[in-house]
Amino acid sequence: MAHEHNHEEDRYITLVDEKGDEQLFEILFTFDSDEFEKSYVFFYPVGENENEEDEIDILTYAYIPTEDGGFGELMEIETDEEWDMVEEVFNTFNEEQED
């Protein structure tokens, strides 16, 4: 999946889908996993968090950071072990946000 990353706006990432349409996403947070030797990014479509009651689609991808701190290529998370770890990190993040 192609994407552009603007370093001045580190909170946003643009993804281009298979039809060539660009969509802007806001980055929720990123973290690194020593266990899987990758970094992970959580993000959601910009404009979808206006209504607090709505469930937002949060997307999660793995990536290998570039030397300048960019995202490199976003990769699908493929193993159950990886998903379990990512969900655990996300749940911890969510709990911290609610405090």
Name a few traits of the molecule.
99 residues, alpha+beta, 6-stranded antiparallel sheet, 6 strands, globular
Account of the 3D structure:
This protein has 99 residues and is an alpha+beta fold. It has one domain (2-98). 19% of the residues lie in helices and 35% in strands. The protein has one helix spanning 80-98, and strands at 2-4, 12-16, 22-33, 38-45, 59-63, 74-75. A hairpin with a 4-residue loop joins β3 and β4 (38-45). The chain is globular and about 35 Å long. The chain starts with a strand and ends with a helix.
Structure in a nutshell:
With 99 residues, this protein is of the alpha+beta class.
Classify the helix fraction into a percent range. 10-25%
Supply Rg. Answer: 14 Å
Tell me the number of strands: 6
What is the N-to-C order of secondary-structure elements (H for helix, E for strand)?
EEEEEEH
What is the element layout, followed by pairings?
Blueprint lengths: L1 E3 L7 E5 L5 E12 L4 E8 L13 E5 L10 E2 L4 H19 L1
Antiparallel strand pairs: 1-2, 2-3, 3-4, 4-5, 5-6
